[in-house]
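Archive entry. Fields below.
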Amino acid sequence: LNHRHRPESEESCPVCGDRVSGYHYGLLTCESCKGFFKRSVQNNKHYTCTEQQSCPMNRTQRKRCPYCRFQKCLAVGMKTEAVRADRMRGGRNRFGPLYRRDRQIKLQRADYQTNLSLNAAMSSSAFQQCHMYNTGMPHSGLPLTGHPQEKCHMSFDYHTASTSHAMHRTVSETYTTRSTQASSSNANIVDCDPDHASPLGPFSSFLTPNFLDALIESEQDESQLCAKVLSSLQREQANRGKHDCLNTFSIMCKMADQTLFGLVEWARNSALFKELKVEDQMVLLQNCWSELLVLDHLYRQVTYGKEGLLFLTQAQIEVSTIISQAGVTLSGLVSRTQDLVAKLKALYFDRKEFVCLKYLVLFNPVVPLEDVLMVEQTQERVNRALMEHTRQTHAGHADKFGQLLLRLPEVRSISLQVEEYLYQQMLHTKHN
DNA sequence: TCCTCAGGGCCAATC
DNA sequence: GATTGGCCCTGAGGA
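PREDICTED_STRUCTURE:
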């Protein structure tokens, strides 16, 4: 058999969904995207998108927009530095160990999947089984006895990445290669794109008086985010077949999974965040990923949720249903979160305030950083912007600024409980 | 020493 | 003429 048709080729390409032919430039992709990525980097291509820079990417439409295709290649983790500048053929590159680890992870995941299928068949509680699997840690193949805060440097995998460990993996792996490649082809391509060029650099828009407006403008479109999460769920369901439907908890976990990727992308695309060194970016993200996730969930509930219902993309799930199905810890978490949602609703929590809180959580100077000053200054600027915004838009509610800041410790507390819960599940599943 | 597999190149097909 | 994508060649590293 040709090596391009190994068992792993059963997987679909994270860029276009076509059949995977092997590891190419950092992860499993199809032959077509491999070639496209290679040509783009070798020829230093800079494409432009005639639409909204969010063109659909699948086997039939991948040729329509090279800009979106290349962006997707980068987003899923293809590494420009794996394209050889000297064009030397054959041999191995320095990603060999990464590919080996990734294979091990996939093997372990397959083992877990098999075990869980057997367990599920013997258990009366399908919910419990599915919920343990979908919290995702066991199949990540990471050390199970380490401290929760232990930093893991595992391979980047757009499809398998889940929850906390995967977050560390995502942050670590995505950044490791960039940090060592100061003159990466990726940077060249983006920087020389006339559509992205700015005489003052990427930070220029934040030198304007409308600091908060600049922050909001750089935010991802909410409907596109929802569409991404939804299409991911649909893909997942399509892969499972009609007799193996995702349950409520599975859906929640999958959504959290996708949301995490969205949040990492949000941070990485932020002009303020890009000003930091890669090492600092990693430290900040690893420090606050769960808070960002909780905050994102809260905002969604405040904006779209209804009384007694949990908003999940396009479906409303009764909170009481989740609490009745979940264990003590999880139902407690859901209740605490819903309490906080009620408080934020009472404050008329809006999108600009949500964005400010996200930046305040991200730019947290508590953790050890090289450029603490920049992080502190950003936090102060966002603080001032939030204060100014609440003063202008809620003149009758003098203390709104203070009330919003008081919610952050609660977010932190819930996020720590979420992490703790996930690690418990991880250990529980391992022992079983 | 042989085998593996992820690089690059080639070229017919397609745009 | 440019781009795509499937197939083949190459060669470092592991067994």
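CURATOR_NOTE: DSSP finds 16 helices and four strands in chain A.
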